[in-house]
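We emphasize that the prediction below concerns an isolated chain of 403 residues; any contacts that depend on oligomerization or on bound cofactors are therefore not represented. The input was used exactly as deposited, without trimming of termini.
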Amino acid sequence: MKKRFLFVVQGEGRGHLTQAITLSCLLRKAGHEVSAVLVGRSEWREVPAFFYEKVCAPVISFESPNFVSDPQSKAVLILPTITSNLRRYRVFLESLKTLHQTVEEHQPDVIVNFYDLLGGLYYLLYKPDIPYVCVGHQYLLQHPDFEFPKRSWLNRLILNVNTWATSFGADKKLALSFRPMPQVPGRRIVVTPPLLREEITAMAEDNSPVQTGQEPYFLAYINQNGFSEEVIEWHRQHPEVKIHLFWDKKDAAEEVKYDSTLTFHRINDRKFLEMMRGCQGYVCTAGFESVCEAMYLGKPVMIIPVHRHFEQACNALDAVKAGAGIAAKYFDFSRFIDYLPGHQNRQQAFREWLSQTEKIFLRELESVCLSPADAASSAQVPHKSYKRLFRFTGTILKRLAIG
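Result of the prediction step, given as a token string:
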């Protein structure tokens, strides 16, 4: 039976956007409808044009909390991030009203949240009687077998609070993973393969020469523009190494040639994937989606977590454990070049895991659309202490909204 889905997507970073595109295509292919997509926006970044073109649903933007970076745009500042977003609470309350109006207009059967904080707060404040599913690699960090960086209890606490807040009232948390892991039904966590776009599969089946041969260049991606200085500094000492670097700098030209061997590109999904297919290695800040794309295409990866960004430190550790490549603190391509001869390609195992994506996602998303009696019997029951916190936080937010 056809179901209507509504997406809420965190707009910071490329990964959540491409995941939403892939899931939209998968659901439409199965005969369902994505009636609207709400995207959190940031004053420092803009939603790329390819998202509007490919998500195949009306897109509505709203102000959403974002990280605050240091003046060099190379590190996340936790305390300023918290205080800056708290000061803007009235803006976010208006965003919650936008979410509610959109839900009322479209009357979806299921709401899917791609790790946006306001998606969880919407369920806390408005309590819609609609099945709620959360999607993201971040939910894997709630898995009992996930390995964290050492001496990280405070950072773990902060990250877990944010992750928990995004999933208030969630019926399921679909935890995207580089590799299979045991399921955790007691926590409503379902470990799933990544959501990679169809273009990746098409490229893997392409028999053009670039598929079998490797061009002499490295591909790089940064989601903090200050890292461009590190790349330029290394490049000046090694001008013979060719690098194509993608970034999402808002006021940058589509393509900027620093010199004959270093080129900067604004994010363009097709160009990025073509260059991914032909590169000899991929260097990036520690997101999730593009590392998965590199693994699918059999490209070794060097991952540099954004400084003081604990989630990225976790991503880097997890990617290394899955065999993607190595982690580093800086954009030191020399270290990556030294690593390449010993890289063990895990492409086949990764593709086998990814082949289960459609089956798992359709099963899990369609299963939340139960009859009222079945839905009541399977509803998530929060821990007693959580219930008290839900009531307290909801009361505070309502008072703020009225004021």
